[in-house]
Amino acid sequence: MSIRRKELGEFLTAMRQKCEPAAFGFPLGQRRRTQGLRREEVAQLADISPTWYTWIEQGREISVSGKALHRLALALRLDKTQRAYLFELAGQRDLQPAAAEEEIAPAFLQRIVDDFAMPAYVMGRYWDVLAWNNAAAHLFGDWLAPDTAPNMLRFVFANPHARTLVEDWETRAQRIVAEFRADSRDQVDDPAMLQLVDSLHQSSPEFATYWKRYDVLERHGGLRGFNHPQRGHLTFSQVTFQLVDQADLKLVLLTSA
Which residues lie in coiled coils (predicted)? Predict the structure, then answer.
């Protein structure tokens, strides 16, 4: 028995035992000795075989599909974190992940970046820049301006200013595409993602070339050079943070190198 299968079985057992039968439509009865729901009751709620469900709790090496896990998550009324943990233990990708419980207000994001003296900005799922401070606006210029709906990818590949501002533009551009591909791996079939990639293909031959290479790299910090038209050559150390409750959001800081 693998450790993951054992953990999966014990996790489901613990979740089942926390369920109050009456809340799920099952009478308590005087002969009920099982804490929480019975295995056959969970199987009934999830529309799966009681034997098969028992095998899962026993940690047997059987195939557990994403659809079955989805039904189990609904049957046991798992919350967002519990559902993600269930799929992780089973080694399955959740095709119907729970939506974020609430969106962070733009005004709150703005207050976050305004607290920093160095250039700071927040990027969303598809690298739209949702908030930025004055230091970032002074660095990037008119690209970061109110009512412009800035996007980091469109800036790098469709804004001529980027090619002179960003030091060693070609190397950085290639890496940005690889980072974006890795970062958006869970949204490869999302219409908004497809529309963005298609528009970049149309506007930038370089993007089209780099995208076809299928390079994937995780985002990491490091030195970032800029050739500012007024301030000359500038070097920053880039640090990126992800929010725990909003994993799609990234807080980027450019600290003095």
Answer: none
